[in-house]
Amino acid sequence: MMLLILGLLLFFATHSVRIVAEGWRVARIARMGEPAWKGVYSLLSLLGLALMVWGYRETRGAVELWQPPIWTRHVAGLLTLPAFVLVVAAY
């Protein structure tokens, strides 16, 4: 689970640099050059993506914390029918 969270943080941090720290980003591009910046940015993004995939694969075999009762599936299916009608009626 820790790898998944670390991958998410790294991936979203790299993609949020332009929103959160535009001045810092521009200074790094001026200092490193645009091709080098794009290379570092791409490597960090790919590392974050790889950590997310690796972390997800590790959590797939995790113990389920909660299993909803079987009857709730039928209730959800029954409530879906009027929901469709109400969505169409709203438009």
Describe what this molecule looks like in 3D.
By secondary structure, the protein is an all-alpha fold. Helices cover 84% and strands 0% of the residues. The protein has helices spanning 2-20, 22-32, 34-59, 71-90. The chain is elongated and about 60 Å long. The two termini are 42 Å apart.
Short description, anyone?
It is built from four helices and no strands. With 91 residues, it is mostly helical.
Biggest pleated-sheet summary? none
Helix content: over 70%
Strand content: under 5%
Average of the residue pLDDT scores: 91
Strand runs, count: 0
Q: Which residues form runs of ≥5 with pLDDT under 50?
A: none
Q: Note the overall shape.
A: elongated
Radius of gyration: 22 Å
N- to C-terminal distance? 42 Å
**What is the helix tally?**
4
Structural class: mainly alpha
Q: Kindly report the oligomeric state of this protein.
A: single chain
Q: What is the helix/strand order?
A: HHHH
Topology (elements, then pairings):
Layout: H1 2-20, H2 22-32, H3 34-59, H4 71-90
Helix pairs in contact: 1-2, 1-3, 2-3
Quick tags:
mainly alpha, single chain, 91 residues
